[in-house]
Amino acid sequence: MSFVNYDLLLKAYPNGLMRENILKLQKFDAFHCLLAGTNESANAVKKRVSSIPNDFEKWLYSCNGGMLFDTTLLSTKSFDDQIKLSFETFAYCYDDKFREAIQLPDSFFVFAIAVHSDLFCFDTKMCDGKVYQWDAENCEVYTAWNSFEDWLTDQINDAIDLIANEELEPLDIKLEDNDG
What we know:
The protein is built from seven helices and nine strands, in the order ααβααββββαββββαα.
């Protein structure tokens, strides 16, 4: 697999807010570890879930999960042979006992996990394109964004603030990659 390909992302998003997001991701590359997406990985997710928002589906073709700063984006692969790292997979959030313990609605498709264990989801029943933050402790929706693009923008901007305040460190794997 390997790290996300910025050229492919920029081709997929030639303008607008997503392009700005990609440029910010590229600028702060040492602070995240996003995996390259493929048709195969995107199709595997689409098989699992009947309806995902178009903006997230488009993202999947370029990005197959990884670490988005301090947030875990779920992946279709548990281990990447090229970079020798393990990743959290979609299967993690589809264990019946896990979902029951946090009272997660059946219609919620989890795509990411916050550093404090809240889940980021789409409601496949509503099909409204919104991203919902599921509070795993209180078992309820904590907040929502109108789209994946809005959610991603907030995640990136929050991370940039953490970096500016020296509360988020570069990832060793990225530092090693730049050294060699």
